[in-house]
């Protein structure tokens, strides 16, 4: 394979677009003070989320995760719906732009692990898809996938040689 780092860029962008597509159906245009538009979580998703979580919990054989869904997520379904929607947006934008890719991949890893734990008992397709998504996030996190053809690389090139350690870890 020629230039494997460039193929990683393509892979990073495709996964980022998938996260943006997933978030797109959960968002609507809201207005702050009736004037300033911002992407808000749609009432449709806020209503759908608790029903879906209850379905995921109902037959889940992983006891501690079932308890987490029923005891923590369901009573706070609105908060978790908002976190999920905005988390998917952050992961998608971060991966597509190669911006804060380490943080984006970490959030994507947390989301993917939770999606996998919630749905792994439903079908082999769910198991395989989420295993690939988790693996993708680990790869993006491990190889700092935003440093080539991403804003992370551009930012690091502008900072110079004695850069703060936190910046290198974050990007």
Describe the protein.
The chain contains eight helices and two strands. The two termini are 26 Å apart. It has helices at 4-24, 43-58, 63-73, 77-97, 101-119, 124-143, 151-159, 165-170; strands at residues 27-32, 36-41. The protein has one domain (4-170). Helices cover 72% and strands 7% of the residues. It has a two-stranded antiparallel ribbon with strand order 1-2. Strand 1 and strand 2 form a beta hairpin. The mean pLDDT is 91. It has 171 residues and is mostly helical. Helix 1 runs antiparallel to helix 4, helix 2 (43-58) runs antiparallel to helix 3 and helix 2 crosses helix 4.
Brief summary:
This protein is mainly alpha-helical. The chain has helices at 4-24, 43-58, 63-73, 77-97, 101-119, 124-143, 151-159, 165-170, and strands spanning 27-32, 36-41.
**Termini gap:** 26 Å
Strand line-up of the largest beta sheet: 1-2
Total of DSSP H or I helical runs spanning 4+ residues: 8
Pick out the low-confidence regions. none
The largest pleated sheet is described as: 2 strands, antiparallel
Number of domain modules: 1
**Approximate strand percentage:** 5-15%
Rg measurement, Å: 18 Å
Order of helices and strands: HEEHHHHHHH
Structural class: mainly alpha
Write down the overall geometry: globular
Number of strands: 2
Round the mean pLDDT to the nearest integer and report it: 91
Helix content: over 70%
What characteristics describe this protein?
single chain; 171 residues; two-stranded antiparallel sheet; 8 helices
Secondary structure layout:
Blueprint: H1 4-24, E1 27-32, E2 36-41, H2 43-58, H3 63-73, H4 77-97, H5 101-119, H6 124-143, H7 151-159, H8 165-170
Helix pairs in contact: 1-4, 2-3, 2-4, 4-5, 5-6
């Amino acid at each position: 394979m020629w230039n494997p780092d460039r193929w990683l860029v393509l892979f990073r962008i495709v996964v980022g677009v998938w996260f943006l597509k997933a978030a797109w159906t959960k968002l609507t245009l809201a207005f702050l003070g009736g004037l300033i538009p911002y992407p808000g979580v749609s009432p449709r998703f806020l209503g759908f989320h608790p029903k879906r979580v209850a379905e995921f919990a109902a037959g889940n054989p992983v006891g501690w995760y079932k308890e987490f869904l029923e005891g923590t997520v369901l009573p706070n379904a609105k908060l978790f719906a908002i976190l999920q929607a905005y988390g998917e947006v952050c992961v998608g934008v971060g991966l597509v732009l190669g911006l804060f890719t380490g943080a984006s991949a970490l959030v994507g890893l947390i989301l993917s692990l939770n999606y996998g734990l919630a749905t792994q008992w439903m079908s082999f397709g769910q198991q395989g898809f989420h295993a690939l998504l988790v693996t993708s996030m680990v790869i993006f996190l491990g190889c700092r996938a935003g440093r080539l053809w991403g804003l992370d690389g551009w930012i690091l090139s502008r900072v110079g040689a004695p850069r703060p350690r936190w910046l290198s870890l974050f990007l």
